[in-house]
Write a structure and sequence with these properties.
Elements lengths: L11 H11 L1 E2 L1 H12 L5 H16 L3 E2 L11
Parallel strand pairs: 1-2
Helix pairs in contact: 1-3
C-alpha cells in the first residue's frame, strides 16, 4: 500500500546536484530537504549526500538564500 497523498520527491541525488549546480539552497529547497529527512525512505548513501550538502553550506560552497526582509539568508 502506498501513500498517494504524499507528493513524489525527485531522487536525493538529483536534488543534491541541482543545489550544488546552483550554489544556493533556497527556502523551497530547505522545505524539500525537510521532506526527505521526515521520510522513512533514506538509505545510508542518502545520509552521506545530506552530510555532504550540509558540509558544503558550512564551508560556504553553497549559500543559503532567504526571503527575510533584511536580505540576509537564514539557514
Amino acid at each position: 500500500m502506498t501513500n498517494s497523498f504524499l507528493p513524489s520527491l525527485p531522487t536525493l541525488s538529483d536534488f543534491f546536484f541541482q543545489v550544488w549546480e546552483n550554489g544556493k539552497l533556497t527556502k523551497a529547497d530547505r522545505l524539500q530537504l525537510r521532506s526527505y529527512l521526515l521520510s522513512d525512505r533514506l538509505t545510508e548513501a542518502d545520509y552521506t549526500l545530506l552530510n555532504r550538502l550540509l558540509h558544503a553550506v558550512r564551508r560556504g560552497w553553497v549559500s543559503c538564500t532567504g526571503d527575510r526582509r533584511d536580505g540576509r539568508g537564514s539557514c
